[in-house]
Amino acid sequence: MTNPTELLNRRYGVDTFNADILGNETISNLLSHRSIRAYLSDTLPANTLETLIAAAQSASTSSNLQTWSVVAVEDTTRKEKLSQLANNQAHIRQCPLFLVWLADLARLTYIAENQGLPYEGLNYLEMFLTATIDAALAAQNAVVAAESLGLGTVYIGALRNHPEAVAEVLNLPPHVVAVFGLCVGYADSSVNVEVKPRLPQAAVLHRETYQLDKQDQEIAVYNQIMKAFYTAQQMNVPGDWSEHSTKRIAFADSLSGRDKLRQALNNLGFELR
Length: 273
Hints:
The protein is an alpha+beta fold. The chain has helices at residues 4-12, 25-31, 48-56, 76-85, 90-94, 106-114, 125-148, 163-170, 201-204, 216-232, 241-247, 261-267; strands at residues 68-73, 97-104, 152-156, 176-185.
């Protein structure tokens, strides 16, 4: 197990993290997480998919409704189509396994209809939010499991750029939408990927009450850490983290088509009352 202090230094981009953190193999794996965007073509061991789904289904789910599903995509042509819909990201084509995580209210609709019972509650925003949270919790369990097996992963939020087209590629019924994708495979070690630093804990950890105005210093420090990280990783990111982040939210067009998400969800059967 890697020294927890070393892992914390990488995670926060500082020489010394002032905390005696508790440590074990699970925590070390979590602190070591990196997003992998270059994959080998090596096939995965038998039963890898089933293992990841078992881990995913072990996540918490609101009221045990289990309002999520996942489509496992291994077909080259289908991965190519999904890649094109997600800004042509090459790692979707490279990875041997691409998992599309779904907010799924179709299953409960189907059950209620078969029993001749009403399901008006599914038409409300709360149930869409529940399904989205369920999918995220399940997927993160799968990521932790995959990384414990020596596999790399990266989430693909860009599937939400064209949710209706994604639904067509995956033959999704009404009341189902792709929340995000997940590449799974062996990392190409020739591509150097370091652990990306996160905001200092003081910026995200609030004790008893929320303190927005006390984050200025922490954000300023983090901006410098990320500027150094962008340079070291040869990333084409001008400015610092604050500049990069505000550009992503500046205008409706900055959302890469997701500003139309509500209408797309309505078209896919989610009323969102």
